Structures are given as structure tokens and as C-alpha cells.
Automatic annotation (TrEMBL):
GO terms for biological process: cell division; sister chromatid cohesion. The lineage of its organism: Eukaryota, Sar, Alveolata, Perkinsozoa, Perkinsea. GO terms for molecular function: ATP binding; DNA binding. InterPro entries: P-loop_NTPase, Rad50/SbcC_AAA, SMC_hinge, SMC_hinge_sf. It comes from Perkinsus olseni. This is Structural maintenance of chromosomes protein 1B. It comes from the Eukaryota. The keyword Cell cycle applies.
Amino acid sequence: MTAPQNSAELSAESSGTLNPTDEPAHYVWQVPEYPKVDRLDGVKRCYVTEIRVNNFKSYHGEHVIPLTIPAIPLITQSSSTGDDRSANEERVPLALTGVIGPNGSGKSNLLDAVCFCLCVGAKRLRNDRLRSLVNSNRTMESQGDCTASASLTVRIERELPPGEGDASMEHTIVSHTTFTRSVTIKSADNNPDRGADDETHRNDDRGAAGAAVGSVYRVNDRACTQAQYKEELSKHHLDADASFFLVLQGQIDKLLSKDDAMSITKAIESASGSWRYRKDYDIVAKKKEHAQDNVTRLTAKRKQINQELNALAAQVQEADRYRDKRAELERKQLDKVTYSLYEIEKEADALLESSEGLLESYEDAKAAVQEAKRKENAAGEETKLLAEEHKRLQNSLEKVRKKQGEAEITAAELRGRKKQLTVNEAKAAAGLTVTREKLQSLEERLQNIDDESAEIEACLEALAVRRDTIDDEIGGGVLTEEIVEECGRISETAQEVAASIESSIRVSREQRILLDQYIDETKATITRLEETQGIRQRESHAAEADMNALREKINARELAVAEERRERGERREAKSMLKERLEKTKQERREIVDELSIMRANHRESDRAAKLRTNVDQLIKEGPVARPDANSLNSAGGGDGLILGLVSDLVHPSHKKYYQAIRAAIGRQHLEAVVVGSRRDALACIQWLKEKQVPPMTFIPLKDMELPPRMLSKEDIPPNSGLRRAEDCVKAANHVPSHLQGSHASHRSIIELIQKLHRWLLGKTVVADSLAQARSVLYHSGRRNAPAMPSGMKVVTLDGDKIAKNGNMSNGQGALPGDSGDVWDAQHVDSIKAELAQKDGEIARIGEELRGLTGTDGVSDEAVGDDDDPMDASLEMSRVEMGSLEEIKRVADEEVNRLGASIEASRGTLAELEVQRDEAVNHLRELEEELSDKTKSFYDDINRRVFGEDDGSGGGDRTRDVMSLIRERKEVLDTIEGEVCKLRQQRDTLRGKREALEADLDRARATLTSQESNLEELRRALEEIIDEEKAMEAELAAAREAGEGAAEELEAKVAEAAARREQAATRFHEAGQQSKGIVDRCNELKAAVTKEEHRLQQLRYRHMQLVRLW
């Protein structure tokens, strides 16, 4: 980049950094070159084809990760000894490689291996020490040497330079380069030759035992230093120091989180490397700014000089013109006496031309009046459009505010949900505490039952020992073996019967225990349901109280809002009425202004028409044309010496609705023309006008009128089209003008001349009802078989609009103001002016009242209607909260009803279980009685069998001793058996209670787990609500800022629209003033025309005097 130089100082060149004191036009700036890197030439593509890691972090052993699709199936080998590289295997590069897998599968460690192999700095890795990159393995630690490595295989595709290689072969060379970096942990006393150390991590990681960590760099299995390794990476276009060469985790989110333009710009500069030239760019920018200031200053100075030169040149031209005019004036003064007569005639001709020019200016001024009215109407339309735009912007502003209110309502809903979740969390925590206390109580009761069971087992063992020794204590050798055997057999039979009865008793006892457990569980369930029902009832009562308080608040707020709406409606209605009054007053004022302008135009037109008619009457009476006779009219030169009068007196519409159409068809110039016999009569009349100093007139000579070759006939008018010939819309010429009735000319000849005048003026004109109908006649729109109209035809409408077939069109030429010829009434004009002033005062007063009704912020209440009136934010929030409370109360009532139904069902179940338990107790009692009866019958049978064969001699004592022994033995055994049964019953009861307690304990633990999970879910939900609330608050803040910005922008637009509306009103007023000025200009032009005509009469009189003197 080279800046312009001065030719005198071309040698003053410099490169590098600029001196800020140098002049902007005397330096040469050169952009510093980027540091040169010895890269491979002609590289077409460069990409990684394979990653190989060995004992790197979570990867134990050697793992090969291919990044390309081989031509044949590729088997990935994950062993520390195998080698699966295929040098001759062709691989197709992938467009995109994705690494997927579950959490902890090693995806991030694979990317860390790539960063480690590309020599990424330690700050960008996720490990502060190289020691943590080695896979921790007891086997490797026991060996003392731990090595981790990562290698990348890079494929390079280069294009051969032109002229090299065989033309029949491809011009692409493919080569592979493998970059390997390994880290080794060795003990302090084991320091073999391990290649080049890592300069950045040589001694930064040393353990307590003195182990050292070092890095080894290899390129294609050739050891090298770190600098050589990085240089080789740069040659292969792998520059890890470049910004965003590797996009690590979190960098995308960090880049996307930048919300200001400066941070994004810095990130882009960092990625592109343009930050290196920031200082040089600032210096060049200062130089450029200095040069631009100088150029601006010189340009302004040159412009000022050019302006001065132009002013001097204009003065010189003005002086030349003044000198020429002065010389011409001197010549004119010298020739004044000699050519006075010629000058007078010339001045008269000039005055005639000037009069014609003034008349044309007068016509142009009238056209300008119409244009000014059109502009005034356009300004009114623009004012209306700007008012609509102002109203639309106000509606947009209200919508923005309404949107902000809705966001606040959403935030209130989140707060309500947060409050409800907080209450539920507290309740869940309280329930969790109760459950934990209940679980602790159950565990204590279970421990007590275990202690009692151990005591009962000890008692049972003691009773079993006593039962085994009862025969030695009581038998004493008294009972014989046969008796004992017989008693044994009978006892076995009794035991079998007792065992069957005891099994039934046991079953009955177990059934009773289960029923007791079911009853206890049912009672606990009823108690828990009653507690929950009480809690829900309290929640319902609290919600109902809150609803009552909130309902009172909503009613009060609704009353306030209704009052505010009523007041706003009253203001809007009052303003609407004032606007209607204002529009009505403005319309009345416009009508008054139109009436006043029409009266003024009518007055001027009436004066002009009266003067014209007076001059025509004077011409007929005193003119040079004699009254015609019958011979002159019937001769070959018939028509000489004849003045028929004005065209307006000879052409009369047949109906008043054709008045404007006929006037537009004839035109004002022809309506005010005088019809004479021939051109000679017209010249004589013009000479007489000059002599009498009468204003000029237009004459139509009958002799010189040539009718068109083809006139419009009745056959040319389509039937049932609503069209008519203009000639048929005038009265037939069946009478002679009054001043010709006493002449010797025949009335028939005069009427024929008038009919010829009608055909000449209206012979090719059609009268249509509307402009659309006129266009359809000219252009055959919608009329496929319409007859062809004669050329040169024109169409007029009943409103006076005229259109020709060539496209020329005039709007309302026959309906110009002043055609009615109303008489000027000064008193009526004064009353109209007073009424106009009154309307102006009323408009001002209504405007003040409207400004009083408009708000202080410039926003009218009319911009907001009853339907789109924004609701009060607090009222809407209260209604939302009311809905939430109603929902809470409804849910609580439903829960109370459900719990009541559950309690009733549980109580019914409890009654049934108690009945079943009573039946089981009665059945158990019956079985015990049956057991006792069976035992007694067995012992009686033993006595009969043992002592029934005795003869009774001397055996009474023995029988009594045996029986007493048996009875004693039986009593002791019964006592022991009773105690055993009692202890067993107690043991079974304790076991049943223990099982019930264990079931209760399991249920309590399950309940505790469920409550803990519910509590965790509530806490997670609460955290989510808190996060959502924070996000909503941030979004609300952003929306509030954006809304405030949008509101400010809309308010600015509203103010701008109001200003534009005021400007449109100003333009409307200026258009009115301009229209008034143009009307005044028309009056001035008319006065000038009159003055010029008077001056022309004076010149003619002087001319006549000079002629007489000459």
C-alpha cells in the first residue's frame, strides 16, 4: 500500500512504522510482511488419517483409531504388541469424523491425545502435569518405567509443478508423515538416553521418590528436538499456536456468549491474526484522518474561491449589460424625435401583444388556481394519512406495553409455583422426619423382641432337660417294663393325637397372629389417613381464606379500573364530539371561503361580460357595417355587411342540464366571439374598435367558415347508448336576433346562417353522461360492433369534462367560477367575511379544548379503545393468583374426599378383620379343650389296661402306687408340657410380632425411600423453577430493556409523526395561502390588462393626433 508522494520529495521514502509528525502527502507506507514459514509447496489437501495412543490416560495398551474409510474392511487392533498398519492400503478421506460414546468412554481423552501430539500448551490441556497423562497401572508402576505416547498420521496430497513427472500419470503426489510424542516417567537413579526433553515440561513434574518426567518427539520414528518437531508440524500446515486451529470444549459457548460488538471483533481479530497489525493500523488511520482534514480544508477553500470568481464574473456581465443598455438608451433618445410616429405604432403593437400575453397569463393563473386547489386537497389527504400513521404508532406502543405486562404475569405465575413447591418441600421434609422416627422406634421394638425370644429359648431348653429326667425322679423302679412299654405305646398314641390337635392349634395361632398384624396395619393406615386428611383440610381452609382476601382486593381493583375506563371513555367521547364539531366547522369555513371566492369571481366575470355586451351593442349600433338587405344576402357574396351578435346569444341549450356541456364544447373564446358576415366586415369592425379605443374582440366571419367534409349524423350514434349529438342539445334556430328584425334581409337566410354556425361549432361533438361513457365512445371499450366515429370527434360530459380521440382532455372548462354572473352584494360579502372570522375563532377555541383533553405525554386517549384497553398488570396477576388458589383448594378438597373414602373403607376392613380374629380365638380354645379331653381319656385307658387284669389280692397298694406314680408323672409332664406350650406360644407370638415388625420396618424403609425420592424430586423441581425464574427475570429484564428501547423508539416515531402532521398542516395552510395569492395575482393581472387597454387607447389617440399633425 503506497500513498501519493510529492515529486520534489520522492527520495523521502520510509518503510515500517510511520512517524506521526510526518506530513500526510510525503511518505511511503509498506505493510509488514507476515513471518515466513518454510511450508511444503503445492499442497492440495492435508488431513489426519490415523490416531494411535499407547497407555495414554484411560487407554491401557495400544489403540488405533482410523479416520478414513479403507477400500477393504479394516480391523482395529487394541493390543500393546500387535501392528495393524497397512501401508499399501488405500483410504478414502471422510468429510467429517465424529467420535461418539457414553459418558466416561474416553472421547475427551482422545481429543487430549490429539492436543498433546500437536504440542498444545499445558494451559489449554485439562491436566496441569504430564505425569497425569500416563495410564496408572500397578504392573507398570512395579516395573519402574511408565510411558504414554500419542501419534498422528498425516496424509499430504501435493500437485507437481508444470513440466515435472510423466504426462500420462496423475499430477498428485501422496505422502504420509507420522508425528509421535511420548512421555516417560523414570526413577531418579534410572536415567538412560531418552532423546530430547520437553523444554516446557522437563522438570515440572517430579514425585516424592524423585521420579522424573520427560517427553520424546519423533517424526517418522526419527527422534528430534521440540523445535524441530514444531517446525515439521508447521511445514505440514499444522500450527497449533494459530488461533482457533483447535476448537476445544467450551470455546464455542464462550464465543456465542459474547454479547457486545467489541468482544466479537476481538475474537475475529484473534482468529484471523489481524491483531498483529493493530498498532500500524492506528498510525495509518491517524495519517488518513489528517490527510482527509487537509483535503476537506482545501476543497472548502477552492469552493470559496470559485464562488468569489463566479460573483466577480456576474458583476462583470452586469456591468457589460449596463453599458450596452446605456449606449442603446442614448441611441434611442437621439432617434426619438425622428421616429416618434414609428415608435408609437410599435408601442401600440407591443401593448397589443402584451395584452394578449397578460390574457394568457390570466388563463395560466386560473389554471394555477386549480393546481393550488389540487395541492390543497393533496395536503389535506396527506394530513389525514399522517393522522392515521400517528394513531397506528400509538397502537404499536400500547401493544409493546401490553407485552411487557404479560411477561410480568408469567413471572408472577413462576413465583406462585415456587411458593407452592417450597411449601410442599417443607411438608415432605416433615413427613421424612416422622418416618425416620417411626423407623427408629420399630428397630428398638425389634431388638426387644429378639431379647425376649432368647430368654424363651433358654427356658425351653431347661424344660426339655427336666422332661428327660422325670422318669428317674418318679419311676424309682416301681413301674415294670411292661407297664412302661404299655404306657409308652399308649403315650405314643396320645402324642400322635395331641400332635394333630397341636398342629391345628398352631395353625389357628398363626392365623390369629396374621389377623392381629392386619388389624395393626389397618389401624396405622387409618391414623395416617386421618392425619393427612387433617393437613389437607387445613390447606383448604387456608386457601379459602387467601381467596377471600384476594377476591376483596380484585373487587376493589376492578372498581378502580372501571372508574378509570369510564373517565377515559368520557374524555374520548368528549374529544370525538369536539373533533366532529371541528370538522363540521372547518367544512363550513371551506364552504364560506368557496362561496366568497365564487362571488368574487362572479363579480369580476359579470363586470367583464357587461362591458363586453355593452361594447357589442355599441358596435352593432355605431359600427361601420350597414344593415344588410335581401339582395346582399342572396348574392354570390352574400353575408357581407352583417353582424349577427355574440355566439352566446345565438346558441341556447335545449335544457338546463346541457348548459355546462354546450359551454365546454364551444369554449369560452368562441362563446365571447362576435359573428359577422365576412372577413371584410371583421376587419372593418377591428378598425372601428381601434378608432373608438374599445378593447379587442374575436370575430367569426360566416363567409370564411368551412364545414368539415363529414359531419356527425344521427346514424353515427349507437342506439340505446345514452349518447346524443351536441347539435341536438341546443334549441333550433327559429328566430332572428332583435336588431335584425327590422332589416330587409329574409329571416330564412339569417336562420340558415345561424344553423351553419351551429353545425360549425357542434357538428363533431357528442354529449355523454359520464367520463367513462365518453372514453368508451372514443376507444370502443366493451363495444365490439360499435360503428367507427368520424375523425376529429370530441366528447363532452354533462359536468363539462371534454376529451378528444387523440387523448387531449380538459376538466370542467365549461364550469369555471364566474359563469353564473351573480350580482356583487357588498353587504352580503361583509357578512360572509364576518362569518368567516367567527368560524376561525371557533376553530381555534375547539383546538384549545382538544389540546386540553390530550394527555401530558402527547398521547391521546382516543388511541386506545374499549376493546384493546390494556388490563392493569396487578389486577391480572391477582386473577392468576386467584386461579392458582382455586386450583389448590379444589385439589385439597378432592384429596380430603378421597382420604375420607379410604378411611371408611379401612374401617370396614378393620371390622371384618376383628370378626375373623374372634372366630380364630374361639376355634383355638375349642382345640385346646379337645386336646385336654383326649389326653384324659388316654390316661384312663392306660389305668384300665395296666391294672384291669389284677385279681385284687394284695395289690391295692401297688395299684395305688402305680397310679399315683403315673398320676404324679402325668401331672409333672402336664406341668412341663404346659410350661413348654406357654413358652412356645410366647415364642410364636414374639415371632409373629417380629415378622410384623419386620414387615412394618420394610414398609417404613420403602416409605422413607419414597419420601426421600419425592423430596429430591421436589428439590430438583424447585431448582428448575428457580433457574426458570432467573431465566425469566433475565428475559424480563432484557424484554424490559428492549421494550423500553422499543417504547422510546415508538414514542420518537409518534413524536415524529406528530411533527410530520404539523408540517402537513402547515403545507395545507401554505397551499391555501398560495391559492389566495394566485387569486390575488389573477386580480392584479386583470387590473394590468385593463391598464394596458387604457394605455393602448391613449397611444391610439396620440397616434391620431400625430397623423393629423403630419
